[in-house]
Amino acid sequence: MELFNQLAQDNHEQIVVCSDRNSGLRAIIAIHSTTLGPALGGTRMWTYVSDDEALRDVLRLSKGMTYKNSIAGLNHGGGKAVIIGDSKKEKTELLFRAYGRFVDGLNGRYITAEDVGMDVRDMEYIRMETKYVTGVSPALGGSGDPSPVTAFGVYSAMKAAIHEITGNDSLKGKKIAVQGAGHVATYLCRYLAKEGAKLFVSDIFEEKAHALAKEVKAKYVKPDDIYDVDADVFAPCALGAILNDTTIPRLKCKVIAGGANNQLLDQDKHGLMLIQKNILYAPDYAVNCGGVMNVSAELSGYDQARVMKQAEGIYDILKRVFAMAKRENIPTYEASNRIAEERILRVGAIQRLYTGTSNLSGRLGELSAKGTA
Ligand code: NAD
Q1: Who's near 65: CB < 8 A, 6+ residues apart?
Q2: Is the pLDDT of residue 234 over 60?
């Protein structure tokens, strides 16, 4: 498809194709929307098989960030970047510093953070060339790992979902099957164990799942058996696309609320299958938006207690999503999309109000001081 058609399809504002022969950098920065503020979203390093695949991915991911930042109530639009390359073999100081200079050239229209294939050291190289980086290590004055905040948001979302179906938000005694025993899952399980939930834990790395199960007194479940657990809640905290034709028929849960991104393989088809099974789906990007709350907070003086309070508010965000889904008789993911879109439209509309602080007014002031206006 032609480039401009591709951008017009989902209303993307801008793409920046970054190429530097000296460092070998090949990257694409996509800015989907800046209506709410500077575009915020991570940089991913991946071995894309073609430029086209990289472009499609960055367009999809940047649009997703617009929705996530909006539902989170942040003053950020959506953006994302991809660096084409093998994160195990092709990382160099030069590559990331060259990339940092391209980010800097956008002068704050895009703010980047860590994503798949990137680590703290890579972000430090980028930060040598631009201040438009967030989610950096505490050693550099950053907030570090966002997982504790993400997990607290998932926990709050789960409570909202349980309240929706039982009228009570207590998770005490509730059976919760957690897929993945990584960062988010670990913090989540700690909150859940503290509240007295009955936990089931799985991971493709058995020893990881066993260690977490031991810590939080959970039952260990083999990776593929997690879908069959007779649980109240299924919490996907590993990979995306795990809600699909094969797994959904096996589910016995009443609620799905987890930290993983892009859980539905096909939003419409699999969202509908969940409704038909009477399973309440808490839309993933609303559930896990504690992560972006955390990196965004770093930009204005990080205070973890304040961000935790913000993440607790994910409870209310989910309640609004469920209420709209019920009222309009639409799937929960669609309700979440609509709430995110409405906020962008409404905030966009107030931008027509004149504030007197635009560049134009400054220029007019200069001219009138010189007696030319
Ligand atoms: P992580 O890498 O620490 O943990 C993921 C775990 O899932 C790993 O232990 C991995 O072995 C396991 N896993 C992979 N495939 C699996 C499978 N098929 N079955 C069971 N386990 C499997 O990652 P994380 O930071 O905990 O993030 C988890 C998910 O949450 C990801 O989808 C991520 O994109 C999303 N997310 C994370 C954050 C955050 O703050 N870390 C924020 C928003 C979204």
Answers
A1: 32, 39, 40, 41, 77, 78, 79, 80, 292
A2: yes
Q: Active-site residue among 63, 68, 80, 175?
A: 80
Q: Give, in degrees to the nearest 5, the angle at Cα 108 between 288 and 72.
A: 20
Please say if the pLDDT value at position 85 is more than 70: yes
pTM higher than 0.70 for the full model?
yes
Query: Domain containing 54: what range?
Result: 2-68+75-137
Same domain, 319 and 188: yes
Which residues form the pocket of ligand 1, taking CB atoms under 6 Å from any ligand atom?
Answer: 146-147, 150, 179-185, 202-205, 208, 223, 237-239, 259-261, 288, 291
Number of the ligand 1 atom closest to the C-alpha atom of 242: 18
pLDDT at 60 over 50: yes
- Active-site residue 194, yes or no? no
The Å distance, Cα 221 to ligand 1 centre, comes to 17
Residue 155 and residue 105 in one domain: no
